[in-house]
Amino acid sequence: MKFAARPATVPGPLPEWDPEWSRLVTVDAVDGARTFHVLDTLPALRARGLEPTGTILALHGNPTWSYLWRGIAAASLADTDGRIWRVIAPDQLEMGHSERLAHDALPTTHGSGYRRIAERVSDVDAVMRALLADTADAAGAQPHPVVTLGHDWGGIVSLTWAARNRDVVDGVISLNTGVHLSEGTPLPSPLRAALSGPVLPMATVLTDGFLRTTLSLGQGPLRAEIKDAFRSPYLTADERSGIGAFVADIPARPGHPSYDELQQLAEDIAGIDVPSLLVWGPKDPVFVEHFLRDLRHRLPHADVHRVEKASHLVSEDADVAGVVLRWLRQQFPREAVPALGDADVAVDDDPAPMIFEALDARRDDASVASVDMTRTPPQAITWRQLTAVSDGIARGLQRLGLQRGDRVSLLVTPGNDLTAVLYGVLKAGGVAVVADSGLGPAGMTRAIRASDPQWIIGLRPGLALARAAGWPGRRISVYALNPIERAALGVETSVTELSRTPDHDPISHPGLTDDAVILFTSGSTGPAKGVRYTHARLGALARTLREQFNVHEETGWAAGFAPFALLGPGLGISSVTPDMSVTKPRTLTAAALADAILAGASTMVFASPAAYTNVQATAGELTAEQRASFEGIELVLSAGAPVPLQLLDALAALFPNAEIRSPYGMTEGLLLTDINREGVTAAEEQSRDHGVCVGRPVPRVRFAVAPLDAAGVPGDELLTDDAATDVLGEFVVSAPHIKAGYDRLWDMDASSKRDDLDGLIWHRTNDIGHIDPEGRIWIEGRVQHVLTPASGPLGPGGIEAVVDTVPQVYRSAVVGVGPTGTQSVVVVVEPRSGVRMTSGLAPMELADAIRAAVAEHYPHDIAAVLVSTAFPTDIRHNSKIDRTRLAVWADAVLRGGRVGTP
What we know:
By secondary structure, the chain is of the alpha/beta class. The chain contains 31 helices and 35 strands. The relative contact order is 0.06.
């Protein structure tokens, strides 16, 4: 079959495409003069009277074309806050609207006459240098930054061009791509299928199957007109010949004509040392996690931003243009500004010790350090035993080859096993990845693949899930397994064996600035995010807890709250894990908590509101001895969600000699404020403030407020001290013990930081509220839950706190229905246990009672009161209400739709 040569063309009218961007460029290629169609925004810029102060060289892969970059082109023209970026995006030869060559046969793996990857790099060089001449100075140099951007095989080509033109390139960006496939690693199945024998020409040239398959690889289906635009240059077999040739040039194994060249390209790319960004869609079935891992190895300095739900066409699934431009603004500001590093997050003139130093300080202590009530019978270990076991694990891991900074996923349920493993990993310099089972199998898979651990330590269920899901990492079981189990689960050794490592090897400890742990958020506002803590941050957290709660050597706690169940040894106090599922708080009963207190002679109790609610509900089952154990508790702490006064009062009745306190924090900052029961009572009696009072900042924590605008969006200005009083806004905090950053979520990490106040980096909490004249923090909800009635932005928490006082109401959610700026205020309630109601419109008497209660505090009209017999909540705490889902449900109910379940 013969294919005729075709000249380059200019695309006709297309959605989201400006004809002003198109130009044809003829250059001297390796085989003579060739004409390329190029997306170039320079004419559009100059038509606006603008000259570029930066250039983005973007390159598509197969089977897309420069239409892929329409988003970055449009966004760059609209973004004039920083540098003015020119976008140059050529269609590769025989792709898009560039020139087609004449061929005598269909493409095959070893066929001739088609473009190979080395020639594509040369093509790009010729086009780029011709177009860069438009903005070069008299000496031929670029007076502004030049950054490459690539996707798919365009990522390989653009990275290679950057590596071989370091005198020109100032930064590199790559979307999903792959530059190296380890020997013995099979190609991804979609590529294997496309390369198999007669399938190659049939799928890629004779039909548009390969093209259609690629366009289906998205988070959601592309609009029909967008698909048509991508297909428009490839309507005939002649026009698709380049698609087949590109696939045929994939060097699957040694002996392929491009195999040696690709190996060299991979080596060249490893030499790139300019600022780099990798934006990745993890659902890509072609460029799977292996390729991202390889790129991070070759570009260890690169920033990484994962778009968890995105697939191969990541720029169609997410606002990649926004991520790219924000990254460019940070890396290449209009004027040079000093960078604020990790040490600038908060002033800490007296760094806290490593968290494992408190454990090591008691290495000769024969008293009980930890009791695991989840075992039958309960297991207690001493400080001496825990220190020896964690030392042995650390030595064993280092002897196996664990390097400082290696990530270790811990698939172990809370208890003595997890405690020993965690402190062993920390001592060895590993980074503990803690993704609890409360995220569910899908959530855990996303979390662990995102953190990409080099090691996995787990019990049988966790190891089986890791094997089935294909999670990365060398595997170690907690207990010794028989040979068949070891082989089936891919296990090398066990923690039991590691803990017996001889003690003559010194342990090489990490440094304060090294990462220590990655914790994951609950996933209540999207895919769970990895939160990085360094050893300095973790040590500062332990110090804050010790100081705030007067922790001393005789203190002991029963911890039913997952993040704190592991902190006992780091505080130098004995700890007890109650017989419960720590990731399911409502499984904690009063009897289980009492047994834990008795087993550890505990003086403190720490649990979530959901756990305490069940403790209160089951208190009638306590024996006399168990009830007496509650009388010995000196301090009761509740965290994980705001705690209503009614629950605090109930806890005071259960623990008559204890101070009841409710600290406020989040995964990104586990302790930020604190308040006791008396403080909550006083706050509610002394003021008419809205929301839930969570007290004052603890030492070394500073709060600021970013005021909300009319659309409910936090502004850029940060207010502190008197200027912040009674201003509704997003809380922004700074402290030595807040997160070091989000893990491999560059854009989210950058947007969560504010660095424009007092020379510190501030963390945006996403919580809204206000600070009262007494300096107390009042929480009124989350940024995404702000209502925008005509009277101005409104936090749901204030009205909810009032509604929750109505006798028939267990809990409530206030949501906005309607357009932004004119939303109606709708109250959704969940009835108390024993109160019989059906989902839908609330009974008239209940609605009247709620409206009357709200009217005493708020001027807002309540448009409707609805009942939902079950609220959607997060898995981890069973208490964070998914107001977004409730808002959608409420809107449907009020429109007369089926009530159903939110």
